[in-house]
Amino acid sequence: MRTPKAVALAQRMYESQDFSVMPILADTLQAAGCEDADVLSHCRNPEQIHVRGCWVVDLVLGKG
Known about the structure:
Layout: H1 4-16, H2 22-31, H3 37-44, H4 55-61
């Protein structure tokens, strides 16, 4: 799940605080074999507010 592409996307979001690519992160994670419905739906939910500290981004970055 923590492919170089997924980590790069998550790092870019973390640093810029621009989370508009969350659906792309979901696609990237799914392509890497992620089947966790909570992770994928969290990334794809258009009503979800994402901020630095987002649990999915932190998970991809290995931040706890």
